[in-house]
Amino acid sequence: MVIPNANKHNAMKEYSYNLFPKPLVIAGFVLICLAFVLVGFNIISGKGENDFNYFISSAALIFIGLILISFKSKIMIDVKSNIVVKESGMLGMTLSSEKIKIPGNCDKIFIKQKDKRGTGYYKFVLPVSYSFKSFDMFFYSKTGIVRLINTDYKRAIKIAEFFKASLKLEYILELPGSLIT
Fold first, then answer.
1. How far apart are CA 24 and CA 14, in angstroms?
2. Is 43's pLDDT higher than 50?
């Protein structure tokens, strides 16, 4: 979604999105509701033996839910200075910020699909390997390319459309064995 900045003197255009997909955001809301149900159940049951345990488990569920709900990323374009700012944040706090200079004579955005493999470990005993498709985005000009971001397919297209609307930059999508413009 394109959100124009309130300050009209600064020609910033912004695209923001949740870092986690919608099912995980919904799961975050469910976890928060579950935490309140646990607290309510503890109060109504009146057992009182495990008050601290209920509180700690409820607080953990709320924290995990808040992470899933509030972790957002933004891409802001300063049209006047040709700078892109990428920010990630949670609960209104900026956790990371990166400025990228759009190269002079940039005429398109190049999106290239890569198949990547990752390895995770569960309790350092059971190795789990997985593969996923990453879409790496670059600013393309005659003088070279500058890396923008890597993300999933749907978000890559939305970001490319955002740049197309904001800066009139066309995009090229390269899938293995084909080239789509």
1. 24
2. yes
